[in-house]
Amino acid sequence: MAHGVPVITTPTPLAADMVEQHGCGLVVPYEDPRAAAEAIRRLGDDAILRHTAAQRGREAALTHFNWPDKAAEFTQWLETWVREDAGTRRAGDAARTRRPRLRPATGSPSPGPRPRSGRVG
Q1: pLDDT in tens, 52-97
Q2: Of 1, 35, 77, 106, which residue has the fewest beta carbons closer than 10 angstroms?
Q3: Helices 47-64 and 33-45, interaxial angle, to 10°?
């Protein structure tokens, strides 16, 4: 998408949603090589569809996958979370706002050491 080429994808949630929402390519069924070939042929034969899908894909990629903007959004979220967490600790609510710690599951067997491939003994 970001390179300005139309997309052909299967109906996976994120990819198909982006393609259908922004009109930047075609969605074909899983494990259907004839449908994939038809989509390639259709994009190859239809210059208007190909150009429009490519242009829309590039615009969608720049808008929705703009890493500097996403990093700024995440940084803003993180700073807000830290400020809120620090404020509740000052107010004496630290016990109530404590984040749960991840603990290993109990009772599940350990997979043990991995065998080394290509070596015996």
Answers
A1: 999 999 998 888 877 888 888 889 999 988 888 776 665 555 555 5
A2: 106
A3: 100
Question: Do residues 59 and 72 share a domain?
Answer: no
Establish if 2 belongs to a structural domain: no
The answer to whether residue 51 is domain-embedded is: yes
pTM: 0.55
Q: Are 91 and 31 in contact (CB under 8 A)?
A: no
Diameter of the chain measured on Cα atoms: 68
* The one-letter amino acid at 21: Q
One-letter amino acid at 117 equals S
CA angle, 74 then 76 then 78, to 5°: 65
User: Is residue 35 domain-shared with residue 15, that is, in the same domain?
Assistant: yes
Helix (H) / strand (E) element for 40: namely: helix 33-45
Element (H, E) at 27: strand 25-27
Specify the residue for token string 């996403």: 70
